[in-house]
Amino acid sequence: MQKIPMTATGYQRLEAELKNLKSVERPSVIRAISEAREHGDLSENAEYHAAKERQGWIETRILEVEDKLSRAEVIDVSKLSGDKVKFGATVVLADEDTDEESTYQIVGADEADIKAGLLSITAPLARALVGKSAGENVEVSTPGGSKGYEIVSVAFK
């Protein structure tokens, strides 16, 4: 069974999602199915079919989240240090073409949110950065072509 690296924040988000699915979403869809059954013929009841489809999605997501939580390897980023990029590192990058700087924290796949500066450890950019230090350059293949970055700084916050 392969462990899934994640930060404490990511683990807490998954726990909150699981609680919401079990205590809010599941009872809600059960009520919707019950109400739709009262409308009669189920073969032509769009509300019933939509509610059953939603129930299937909720149950599948509950299983997925429970599996991820059971395999989670929570990494306390505040206890990490070093000068090389690894899981949990906050990296400042400078685009070699525009000198525009951007900051990303390397996190688990389930907590990634590029707009919030959270970069999945499985993303091509993160894989290119891992093991590198400040001052080094990396090349990343993107759908728009190859892109070059310089690592400005590596920190653990």
UniProtKB/TrEMBL annotation:
UniProt entry keywords in alphabetical sequence: DNA-binding, Elongation factor, Protein biosynthesis, Transcription, Transcription regulation
Alphabetized HAMAP family for the sequence: GreA_GreB
Gene3D superfamilies per record: Transcription elongation factor, GreA/GreB, C-terminal domain, Transcription elongation factor, GreA/GreB, N-terminal domain
Stated family: Belongs to the GreA/GreB family.
Function field: Necessary for efficient RNA polymerase transcription elongation past template-encoded arresting sites. The arresting sites in DNA have the property of trapping a certain fraction of elongating RNA polymerases that pass through, resulting in locked ternary complexes. Cleavage of the nascent transcript by cleavage factors such as GreA or GreB allows the resumption of elongation from the new 3'terminus. GreA releases sequences of 2 to 3 nucleotides.
GO MF term (any one): DNA binding
Stored NCBIfam families: greA, PRK00226.1-2, PRK00226.1-4, PRK00226.1-5
Pfam families given in the database record: GreA_GreB, GreA_GreB_N
Gene Ontology BP terms: DNA-templated transcription elongation; regulation of DNA-templated transcription elongation
Organism (species): Ferrovibrio terrae
The organism's place on the tree of life at top rank: Bacteria
SUPFAM superfamilies attached to this UniProt entry: FKBP-like, GreA transcript cleavage protein, N-terminal domain
Occurrences of domain Transcription elongation factor GreA/GreB C-terminal (ranges): 82-155
Transcription regulation in keyword set: yes
Record-annotated Transcription elongation factor GreA/GreB N-terminal domain positions: 4-74
Protein name: Transcription elongation factor GreA
